[in-house]
């Protein structure tokens, strides 16, 4: 979410919460005796891990029914959550924290995607992070994980981001990848699947070093979470068996996706998750899909959110989430 988008989101959030304070408190009734559990996933790499659930939704307890929605953008997802139109969602970790800080009753159930960001270049002289000094680096996602990742690593390695790096934010993700392929730019920071798109499109494109490794050296944490699953608090409390079934199905889907990237790619295109089958299949091995329950993931989540808080407090709602954000959901 860009800084402009963040400001618009804050205005929208305040407006909706003022006029519809009760709207986000319960699932609507399913046709049968149970409730309809509405789960949204962002189109693109964020939703790939859930694709097996799109294909074969699990049976839930007590007559409950699972409905899946592919949502086009983080702003659209936030709007649906604010309006009470979803009971669970897969979204960026800082957006989850921001919604929780605003008072919305969605708690973190699991981290479902770790670091998927890379420095990508056609310049043979780029071998280390220090080689970025003085060069224009196209960054997709101003005010989001790619920018804050680069800033944190730069500072840890003795560079001043605003002085020593030339960070350019004028191109969106797809245009950066296309510009690398066409040779119009030579250096960028991209998440998946755009890194894979660039690598597939031009044999001169390469990843010169691992940002994951540099993040670990800078923060002492082995990885940084990018995507999380949040669930409405009342659903966790009142429909525990159904929530557990959704979590188990999601974890199994991630395992299946990682083991079957070609088949998963076909389903990604079938369910209109925003990627062609070939691109999704190629990106899956480079994408860090995981299923880590919230209590176990908390140290990594807080390490990344602390970076957001330091650079742009509004991006996480002005504070780190309290312990209640991290839902502990018993196994069956």
Taken in chain order, the helices and strands follow as: HEHHEHEHEEEHHEHEHHEHHHHEH
**How many distinct helices?**
15
CATH topological fold name of the largest domain:
D-Maltodextrin-Binding Protein, domain 2
* Helix share, percent: 40-55%
The main pleated sheet reads as: 6 strands, mixed
Radius of gyration in whole Å, from Cα?
A: 20 Å
Average residue pLDDT: 90
Overall outline: globular
What is the CATH top level name of the largest domain? Answer: Alpha Beta
| Number of strand segments | 10
By secondary-structure content and strand pairing, the structural class works out as alpha/beta
Number of domain modules: 2
Question: Which consecutive residue ranges, at least 5 long each, have pLDDT under 50?
Answer: 7-12, 14-27
Summarize this structure as a short list of keywords or feature phrases.
332 residues; alpha/beta; D-Maltodextrin-Binding Protein, domain 2; 2 domains; six-stranded mixed sheet; four-stranded mixed sheet; 15 helices
What secondary-structure arrangement, pairings included, does this model have?
Layout: H1 3-19, E1 36-42, H2 45-48, H3 51-55, E2 65-71, H4 74-82, E3 88-92, H5 93-101, E4 106-114, E5 117-121, E6 136-139, H6 145-156, H7 161-164, E7 166-168, H8 173-182, E8 187-191, H9 194-201, H10 211-219, E9 225-232, H11 233-238, H12 240-259, H13 261-270, H14 277-283, E10 289-293, H15 294-311
Helix pairs in contact: 1-4, 6-10, 8-9, 13-14
What does this structure look like?
The chain is an alpha/beta fold. It folds into two domains: about 5-115 and about 225-325, D-Maltodextrin-Binding Protein, domain 2 (3-Layer(aba) Sandwich), CATH 3.40.190; about 115-220, 3-Layer(aba) Sandwich (D-Maltodextrin-Binding Protein, domain 2). It is built from 15 helices and ten strands. It has helices at about 5-20, 45-50, 50-55, 75-80, 95-100, 145-155, 160-165, 175-180, 195-200, 210-220, 235-240, 240-260, 260-270, 275-285, 295-310; strands at about 35-40, 65-70, 90, 105-115, 115-120, 135-140, 165-170, 185-190, 225-230, 290-295. The longest helix is centred in the last third of the chain and has 20 residues, at about 240-260. About 50% of the residues are buried.
């Amino acid at each position: 979410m860009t800084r402009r988008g963040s400001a618009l989101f804050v205005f929208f959030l305040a407006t909706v919460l003022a006029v519809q304070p009760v709207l986000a408190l319960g699932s609507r009734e399913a046709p049968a005796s149970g409730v309809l559990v509405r789960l949204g996933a962002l189109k693109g790499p964020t939703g790939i891990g859930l694709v097996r659930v799109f294909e074969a939704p699990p049976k839930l307890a007590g007559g409950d029914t699972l409905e899946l929605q592919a949502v086009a953008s983080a702003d659209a997802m936030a709007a649906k959550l604010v309006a009470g139109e979803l009971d669970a969602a897969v979204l960026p970790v800082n957006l989850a924290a921001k919604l929780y800080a605003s008072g919305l009753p969605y708690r973190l159930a699991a981290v479902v995607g770790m670091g998927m960001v890379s420095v990508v270049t056609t310049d043979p002289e780029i071998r280390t992070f220090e080689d970025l000094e003085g060069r224009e680096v196209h960054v997709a996602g101003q005010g989001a994980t790619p920018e804050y990742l680069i800033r944190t690593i730069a500072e840890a390695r003795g560079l001043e981001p605003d002085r020593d790096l030339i960070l350019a934010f004028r191109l969106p993700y797809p245009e950066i990848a296309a510009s690398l392929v066409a040779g119009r730019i030579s250096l960028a920071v991209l998440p998946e699947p755009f890194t894979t798109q660039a690598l597939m499109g031009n044999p001169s494109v390469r990843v010169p070093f691992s940002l994951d490794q540099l993040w670990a050296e800078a923060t002492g944490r082995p990885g940084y979470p990018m995507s999380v699953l949040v669930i409405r608090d009342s659903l966790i409390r009142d429909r525990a068996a159904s929530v557990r079934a959704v979590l188990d199905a999601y974890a199994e889907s991630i395992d299946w996706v990682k083991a079957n990237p070609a088949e998963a790619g076909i389903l990604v295109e079938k369910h209109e998750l925003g990627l062609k089958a070939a691109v999704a299949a190629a990106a899956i091995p480079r994408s860090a899909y995981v299923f880590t329950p919230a209590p176990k993931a908390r140290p990594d989540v807080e390490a990344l959110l602390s970076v957001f808080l330091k650079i742009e407090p509004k991006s996480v709602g002005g504070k780190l989430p309290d312990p209640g954000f991290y839902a502990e959901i018993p196994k069956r």
